[in-house]
């Protein structure tokens, strides 16, 4: 059974979903009223966390379920908040990923499932954590592209995951890339593609998150200098805070509905329910 706190998001399918009303009081407090039911099964709460209010809704939903006698409760949050804030870069900043992990650990859930976490830090901090890789997602992306592509690793942090992905996909070619980031300003520079000539072959950049898109725009320019063919971008979690205008260098952008719903001709959204099914 599932309790889908985002009523437009059914990552585990919409069958056997619990009925409820949820709202926020005028003072800002989240609240929920779940229609009475009885079960001895695990109830899985699903949600897309985009603010602390979403965490609050999970907390009140969990309390309501426990007061209804539900003994086993799991959580599915595909995009783990603040997963990119997984190390201290400069003095005076918080380790935000640990704050979210500590809050969720206090809920004492039977399982917490995360889709394609940014790094190994998230599952290391979370109790009873299960991760789902991006393998099935990228396999569907390759099916949609329908032609030979090289897998592009945007930076050193993505290398370990992309070589595992390559093995899963039967040994697809991987091209390594790098960039530099000013930790104080966030400015990106020094994009490098470690290949002499890509021979006109199409390229698929694979990463976990697209926020503003600066990494991928800068990388696309360097790939074209190395004689890349068509450029594609696949990100598990599409935030796209600056829209898609500057991402028009890509033939197609692929993402899932893990963070939000997207309706744009340039973007192909692969529903998580199809990946998990």
Class derived from helix and strand content: alpha/beta
Helix content: 10-25%
Query: How many strands, which pairing sense, and closed or not: the largest β-sheet?
Result: 7 strands, mixed
Alpha plus pi helix count: 7
State the strand order across the main sheet: 10-9-8-11-12-13-14
- How many whole angstroms does the radius of gyration measure? 20 Å
Percent strand equals 25-35%
Overview of the molecule:
The protein has helices at 52-67, 96-105, 121-125, 135-145, 159-168, 214-225, 272-276; strands spanning 2-4, 20-24, 30-34, 43-46, 73-76, 111-115, 129-132, 149-153, 174-181, 188-193, 202-210, 231-238, 252-256, 267-270. With 277 residues, the protein is an alpha/beta fold. The chain folds into 2 domains: 2-132, 3-Layer(aba) Sandwich (Rossmann fold); 135-276, 3-Layer(aba) Sandwich (Rossmann fold), CATH 3.40.50.2020. The strands form 3 sheets. A 7-stranded mixed sheet has the order 10-9-8-11-12-13-14, with helices on both faces. A 5-stranded parallel sheet has the order 1-4-5-6-7, covered by helices on one side. Strands 2-3 form a two-stranded antiparallel ribbon. Helix 1 links the parallel strand 4 (43-46) and strand 5 (73-76). It is globular.
